[in-house]
Design brief:
With 417 residues, the protein is an alpha+beta fold. The chain is 29% helix and 16% strand. A hairpin with a 5-residue loop joins strand 14 and strand 15.
């Protein structure tokens, strides 16, 4: 286990170093048991890094260790970045959240909603109202993911070539047009369903800004925040820093070991035709920490402001109708968060009640995770940010996030007034 020099003595920001060490020991056991390849962790409070650690291998077969500059596929942790990009344009008056998506992406006109039938012979009815931009940002548009394997629409997506990726040769614009040509799972705004909606937001950013998504990210977000290692592809000169991607050999939570997923893992080494705003980025721990700190700073970091204070507050409030949680409004399927006691904002989950969620945390905490078991969250009440990176696909293999929560919050030892 290695640790870099931190910015502050943990005790100065109300964190017990002995209890922080429990986090390292706990997740080291996952690696020692062959259940994780390696991991990287950063805990910051009041804008100051209080704890960092790395353990295990970025490449198990080569014996290469995880280092502070290891590159990780962050998959769906791309979604908050894409959502910030859209909200930056919203602040410029480029669109309203209530605008129909078809105003900018014409393929979304005249949507139909699945009401029965089979994947081969779906029964549909016209959508009562159009898909709107806020539907996309809140995953209430009626889109889905092919990898869910729970409803007929998921099967329709898979038949169209969308499961863990997209059909060969399609760029983002073509993917969006293809999704728009498929039925919706429900009437827009009626339910919450984790989906390709943020990829559609990425295309919206392209159309409204006149830039490709990678160019917008580089110019408007990564450059200003100093996120020098975050991109849609890993250059050959940086390939030795890239962590390999792994999967469990079984779904057992007690005896699984890992196997390398070379096919999916090597995709990030090629220039992508499809720029996925929902899951396409690679980043370092340092870079994503910069992004999280910007959100903790209500849109500002080190004198650089990406969003206004009120916009970040709006983004990280619960937007589910009636203020309910995902358990009440979401379909019972996989997402990168728990449903009980958790709502959803514009691109991030929002903790409503940690008691209901049965894990330590704070009301108002927000964040998201990625398919390879990565996670981040921001807790404004505690002035806390946490970034955890590893490369085990899928993220449902182990309860890493809930365990990380209980270990981090039990290390907070300052008095609550």
């Amino acid at each position: 286990m290695t640790q870099t020099v931190t910015e502050v003595d943990p005790l100065e920001v109300g964190l017990d170093p002995t209890r922080l060490a429990r986090i390292d020991r706990h997740f080291a056991r996952y690696v020692d048991a062959g259940r994780l390849p390696g991991w990287s962790l950063l805990v910051s409070r009041y804008g100051r890094v209080a704890h960092t650690a790395t353990y295990g291998r970025r490449d198990v077969e080569a014996g290469a260790p995880v280092t502070d500059d290891t590159l990780f596929r962050i998959y769906s942790m791309t979604k908050p970045i894409t959502s910030v990009a859209a909200l930056m344009l919203y602040e410029e008056g480029a669109f309203e959240l209530t605008d129909p998506v078809s105003r900018y992406l014409p393929a979304f006109a005249d949507q139909r909603v699945l009401v029965g039938g089979t994947a081969a012979r779906p029964a549909t009815v016209p959508a009562i109202e159009p898909v709107r931009i806020w539907h996309l940002l809140t995953h209430t548009a009626g889109l889905t993911y092919g990898f869910h394997h729970t409803q007929v629409l998921d099967e329709i997506y898979r038949a169209a070539g969308f499961e863990w990726g997209s059909p060969k040769g399609l760029d983002l614009a073509a993917c969006v047009d293809a999704w728009a040509g498929l039925p919706l799972a429900f009437q827009p705004g009626a339910e919450w369903n984790y989906s390709v909606a943020t990829d559609v937001v990425g295309r919206l950013v392209e159309v409204v800004s006149g830039q490709s998504l990678d160019a917008f990210f580089a110019e408007r977000i990564f450059g200003p925040l100093g996120m020098t290692d975050t991109s849609f592809t890993v250059a050959e000169t940086d390939a030795d820093r890239l962590a390999a991607l792994y999967a469990p050999t079984s779904r057992s939570t007690t005896g699984s070991r890992i196997v390398r997923n070379e096919r999916m893992g090597r995709a990030i080494l090629r220039e992508p035709r499809y720029l996925s705003g929902g899951g396409g980025l690679v980043a370092t721990r340092h870079d994503y920490h910069r992004f999280a700190q910007m959100l903790l700073g209500r849109g500002e970091l080190d004198g650089v402001r990406l969003l206004g204070d009120r916009t970040v507050r709006f983004m990280t409030a619960n937007h589910l109708p009636g203020g309910v949680d995902l358990a009440a409004f979401g379909r019972p399927l996989f997402a990168e968060t728990t449903f009980a006691g958790t709502g959803f904002g514009l691109g991030v989950s929002v903790v409503l009640d940690p008691i209901v969620g049965r894990t330590l945390g704070s009301a108002g905490e927000f964040g998201w995770g990625g398919a390879a078991s990565t996670a981040f969250w921001v807790d404004p009440a505690e002035q806390l940010t946490v970034v955890f990176l590893t490369q085990l696909l899928p993220s449902s293999t182990y309860p890493l996030r809930s365990q990380l929560h209980q270990l981090v919050y039990s290390a907070l030892v300052d008095r609550i007034e």
